[in-house]
C-alpha cells in the first residue's frame, strides 16, 4: 500500500476511534517492530529539532488544520511524537492534538507544532483499538467489571491476539476489528 505525499493521516492496519465501546488497545510484540519504533522515535526528534530551527524564519500557518498530521511534544516529557491536529484554537494561539502512537491528547502552543513528513507517516501506528469478540456480561457481574478484570489479567503479561473479523466499514461509519 502506498501513501501519496498530499494524503493526510498515517498508515495503519487497524486503527479506529473508540467511542462508547468497551475496547482494548493492542500493539505488536515483535523484535522488528520494537527496533522500528526506536528508529522512529530518534527520527521524530531529529526532524522536530531541524523544523523548529527552520520555523524561526518562516510561517507555518498552512499546517494548522483539523485532521492534519504533525509532530507535537508530549507535555509530560517534552519529547516529540506523531500526532493529528484535532482542533485549532486561534484565540489561544494553540492546537488540540491526539498523539497517535500512544493515544494521548494535549493542548499545545502553535509554535511547538511541526509538520510530519511522509516518511514518518508510512510507519504503522504503535497501538490499535479493537473490540473483543465473545466477551459478554453474566448474571453475577456487569460488563464493566468483566472488562476490568480482563484488562487486569492482560496487563500482567504478554499475549497473542488473532483477528477473527474485520468488518466492512461503510463511508461515514466506524467499526472495530474483533480479536
TrEMBL record:
PROSITE patterns: TUDOR. Gene3D superfamilies: 2.30.30.140. Coiled coil: none annotated. It comes from the Eukaryota. Residues 63-123 form the Tudor domain. This is Tudor domain-containing protein. It comes from Anopheles melas.
Amino acid at each position: 500500500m502506498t501513501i501519496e505525499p498530499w494524503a493526510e493521516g498515517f498508515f495503519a492496519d487497524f486503527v479506529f476511534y473508540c467511542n462508547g465501546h468497551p475496547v482494548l488497545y493492542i500493539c505488536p510484540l515483535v523484535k522488528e517492530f520494537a527496533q522500528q519504533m526506536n528508529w522512529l522515535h530518534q527520527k521524530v526528534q531529529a526532524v522536530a529539532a531541524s523544523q523548529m530551527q527552520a520555523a524561526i524564519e518562516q510561517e507555518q500557518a498552512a499546517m494548522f488544520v483539523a485532521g492534519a498530521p504533525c509532530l507535537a511534544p508530549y507535555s509530560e516529557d517534552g519529547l516529540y511524537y506523531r500526532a493529528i491536529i484535532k482542533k485549532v484554537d486561534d484565540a489561544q494561539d494553540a492546537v488540540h492534538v491526539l498523539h497517535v502512537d500512544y493515544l494521548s491528547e494535549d493542548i499545545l502552543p502553535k509554535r511547538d507544532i511541526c509538520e510530519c513528513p511522509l516518511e514518518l507517516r508510512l510507519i504503522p501506528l504503535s497501538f490499535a483499538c479493537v473490540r473483543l469478540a465473545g466477551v459478554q456480561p453474566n448474571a453475577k457481574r456487569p460488563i464493566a467489571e468483566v472488562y476490568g478484570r480482563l484488562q487486569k489479567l492482560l496487563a500482567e503479561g504478554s499475549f497473542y491476539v488473532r483477528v477473527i473479523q474485520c468488518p466492512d466499514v461503510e463511508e461515514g461509519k466506524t467499526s472495530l476489528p474483533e480479536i
